[in-house]
Amino acid sequence: MKAFATLTLAASLLALPIAAYAEQGNAAEQVVKYGNIEIHYNAMPTDELQPEVAKNYHIERSHNRGLLTIAVLRKNKLGVAEPVHAALSATVVNLNSQLAEISMREIKEGSAVYYLGEFRVTPPDTLKFSVSAKPAGETRKYQADFSRPFFN
Description:
Structural class: alpha+beta
Number of strands: 10
Number of domains: 1
Distance between the termini: 38 Å
Shape: globular
CATH superfamily: Domain of unknown function DUF4426
Strand content: over 45%
Largest sheet: 6 strands, antiparallel
CATH class: Mainly Beta
Low-confidence stretches: 1-9, 15-28
Order of helices and strands: HHEEHEEEEEEEE
């Protein structure tokens, strides 16, 4: 039962803001695929998190804070995508061309593996994210670049 709750939480962290951004016409595909490797990503204001979720993951809820969530998956021989550990680096650039690194931390819960990183945002702004992931057992790095608007 706990494993199901963990996977549900991880999925909700990755999918939570999709509906909100879709309503504003800003939804984009939240995954980049490279053969058998997938990088799932999302960025959202932390004040959209439920208080108990923010508390459990030690995330400050604020309209001036954002949360980047990353999951790296590899398809197995049966074609089923499974989470994998990865070495990650992430940066964010705002409309004023200010660049910041995002420190990512790995979360392991049961078979789920995902990464969380917080960043500052001053809405309204559109942030450009660049994520580099080197999955365990791979020799190359994979890139996910995307933009996300943040509103007041």
